[in-house]
Every structure is written in structure tokens, then in C-alpha cells.
């Protein structure tokens, strides 16, 4: 029996549901209603889909009412459950970036890439079998294209930098972005004590991190005066301008840290050196934001993301030559 995960009604017909990925508060999906139709933003993994089904059954939402299943990009914490979800929602189309579509139609390469990052045992525990999606049910919107969810326009924008197969969705009705991984990861544990200052960390995950493109994508999201940005990891951020500046600073600092270790051989040794410096970098930022906390004791919360960031920077250095 799976543990029930938190559900937050954000108003404007948007509900945030925890996917239960690794721990509560780490990854969510969003259910959006428009004119009696539903869209699910993000798929979680195959193990997450039960959370959504339980919510829908309790609220009398039929599987046939789901019109769109929308992973923001094809990393497996966002798209791993796509095939399982599509099997349960017979009327749904899978909306995925044109650069990612083929990897969900034939997930062989995607799974192999993630196995290389996580190792086989951890991969099986986190993701399990990746179910393919029928190509006839896949649509890939162009940059700026609008899809209608009932009477509710959802607009798609290319947002590379974290991955070349990443888009963000703009929901005019709530003036919200669904930002996938572009607008960083939110750590409520490190938010300022008045709850007003969120703490985010950027994500430089392998293998397509591109700092200039990621900064441009962050700036695109901040530019149209959104009421909020809805992060997959995790929840709503309304302090957009300050958080955008923090993320851009972190992206530049990540590159500077990586460059200090560029002369080391690519791989485990260089990753470890970058990771150690990132740990002290984040310890410093967290101490500035929350001097009341024992930052060192809380750093293990960030450990997985810092490790992925270090791996992504090592790959970036190698690709850049
Ligand atoms: Zn993610």
C-alpha cells in the first residue's frame, strides 16, 4: 500500500499532487481543468500514477476527461510514467517537445542514458520498466503554439538550457508558468523564516546543460510578469524577479566553479572536486539566507541534486572542449 501524498489546490482550476518520487515534497505533477477537460503536467514515474488515479476517482474525474498528458521534458522524473499514464487515459494526447518525442515512442536510449547516470539498481528502484507511447498519440507543439484545453489556452515555449527537449507552458488564465526544471528546484526547508523568501537552486543535470541558453530561458519566464511560477520540484514561487536573479547568479557561479577544475581528467575525479566545491558554495548561500539553521546538517537534503549538478558540469566541460 502506497503512502498517500500531499495535494494542494492552487485555485484557477489547478491542483498540485505529489508524485511520491523518492520523498514527499521532491516532485509533483499538476492537474489543470478547462471547460470540463483535464491536462496533466508531468507524468512522474510509473510508480506515481496511482496518486493521480486516486485523486481523480475521489473527485469524480473520469479517465476519458484527460485530454493532454504533458511532460515538460523527457528526463525520467518528469516523463518516466508517460506510457503508463497514456494507457490509462484513452482520449489523451501526449504533448512533448519535438526533440524529446522519439525518446518516449522508443524509450530504449532514454533508459540506457539514465542507467548510466543512476546505476542499474537505483534505476530499477526509481523508474522500473519504461513503457513506450504510440507515435499516433504524440503531438509536439511549435515554439509559441497554443493548445486549447476546453476553452483554456495553454501556450508552449521552447526553453532549452536544462535540456534541449524542454518546453514551458504559459497559462494565461492564472498567469502562471509551468516551468519543469528551468526555474530551478525549490527547497522550502531553506526559505526565509517569514516564509516570504524562497530558496531555489539551479539544476545543471547531464547531459545537455548549456548556461547561456538556461539563463535566456530563466529570463523568458521572468519577462512577462507572471503571478507565479509552478515548479515541478516543487510548488509555487511568486517572488519571481528575485528568484530569477538568484538562479542566473548560481548558473554563472556553477560555470566558474567547474572551470577551476577544467584541467582535471574528465569523470569521477573531476566530478568529486566540483561536487566538493559546490557543497561549500551552497553551505555559504544557505547560511546567508538562514543563519539560524545548521546548514551543514541540512546539506544532505541537497546531496542528490549537487551530485547531479557536478556530473552535468563535468559533461559540459568535456563537450565544450
Ligand atoms: Zn526534474
Notes on the protein architecture:
Helix content is 39%, strand content 19%. It folds into two domains: 7-237, 4-Layer Sandwich (Metallo-beta-lactamase, Chain A); 242-320. The protein is an alpha/beta fold. It has ten helices and 15 strands. It binds zinc ion (ZN). The site of zinc ion has 6 residues, from helix 2. Zinc ion (ZN) is lined by residues 75, 77-78, 181, 232-233.
Small ligands present: zinc ion
Number of DSSP-assigned strands: 15
Structural class: alpha/beta
Helix and strand succession?
EEEEHEHHEHHHEEEEEEEHEEHHH
CA radius of gyration is: 19 Å
What is the approximate shape? Answer: globular
Helix content: 25-40%
- Mean of residue pLDDT values: 94
Write the layout of secondary structure elements.
Blueprint: E1 7-11, E2 14-18, E3 28-34, E4 37-41, H1 49-58, E5 66-70, H2 76-79, H3 82-88, E6 93-95, H4 101-105, H5 108-118, H6 120-126, E7 138-139, E8 146-149, E9 152-158, E10 167-171, E11 176-178, E12 185-186, E13 200-201, H7 211-223, E14 228-231, E15 235-237, H8 240-260, H9 268-289, H10 295-320
Residues 75, 77-78, 181, 232-233 line the site of zinc ion (ZN).
Amino acid at each position: 500500500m502506497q503512502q498517500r501524498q500531499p495535494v494542494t489546490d492552487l485555485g484557477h482550476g489547478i491542483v498540485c499532487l505529489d508524485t511520491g518520487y523518492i520523498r514527499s515534497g521532491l516532485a509533483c505533477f499538476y492537474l489543470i481543468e478547462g471547460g470540463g477537460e483535464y491536462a496533466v503536467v508531468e507524468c512522474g514515474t510509473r510508480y506515481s500514477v496511482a496518486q493521480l488515479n486516486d485523486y481523480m476517482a475521489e473527485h469524480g474525474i473520469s479517465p476519458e476527461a484527460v485530454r493532454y498528458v504533458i511532460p515538460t521534458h523527457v528526463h525520467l522524473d518528469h516523463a518516466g510514467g508517460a506510457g503508463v499514464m497514456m494507457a490509462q487515459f484513452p482520449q489523451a494526447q501526449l504533448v512533448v517537445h519535438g526533440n524529446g518525442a522519439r525518446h518516449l515512442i522508443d524509450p530504449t536510449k532514454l533508459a540506457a542514458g539514465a542507467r548510466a547516470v543512476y546505476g542499474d539498481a537505483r534505476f530499477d528502484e526509481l523508474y522500473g520498466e519504461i513503457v513506450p507511447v504510440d507515435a499516433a498519440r504524440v503531438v509536439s507543439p511549435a515554439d509559441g503554439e497554443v493548445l486549447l484545453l476546453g476553452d483554456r489556452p495553454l501556450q508552449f515555449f521552447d526553453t532549452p538550457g536544462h535540456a534541449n527537449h524542454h518546453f514551458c507552458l504559459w497559462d494565461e488564465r492564472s498567469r502562471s508558468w509551468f516551468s519543469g526544471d528551468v526555474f530551478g528546484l525549490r527547497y522550502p526547508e531553506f526559505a526565509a523564516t517569514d516564509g516570504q523568501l524562497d530558496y531555489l537552486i539551479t539544476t545543471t543535470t547531464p547531459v545537455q546543460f548549456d548556461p547561456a541558453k538556461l539563463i535566456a530561458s530563466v529570463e523568458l519566464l521572468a519577462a512577462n510578469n507572471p503571478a507565479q511560477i509552478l515548479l515541478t520540484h516543487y510548488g509555487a514561487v511568486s517572488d519571481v524577479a528575485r528568484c530569477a536573479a538568484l538562479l542566473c547568479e548560481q548558473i554563472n557561479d556553477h560555470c566558474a566553479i567547474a572551470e577551476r577544475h577544467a584541467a582535471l581528467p574528465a569523470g569521477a575525479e573531476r566530478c568529486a572536486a566540483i561536487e566538493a566545491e559546490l557543497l561549500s558554495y551552497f553551505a555559504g548561500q544557505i547560511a546567508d539566507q538562514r543563519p539560524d539553521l545548521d546548514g551543514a546538517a541540512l546539506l544532505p537534503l541537497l546531496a542528490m541534486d549537487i551530485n547531479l549538478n557536478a556530473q552535468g558540469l563535468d559533461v559540459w566541460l568535456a563537450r565544450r572542449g
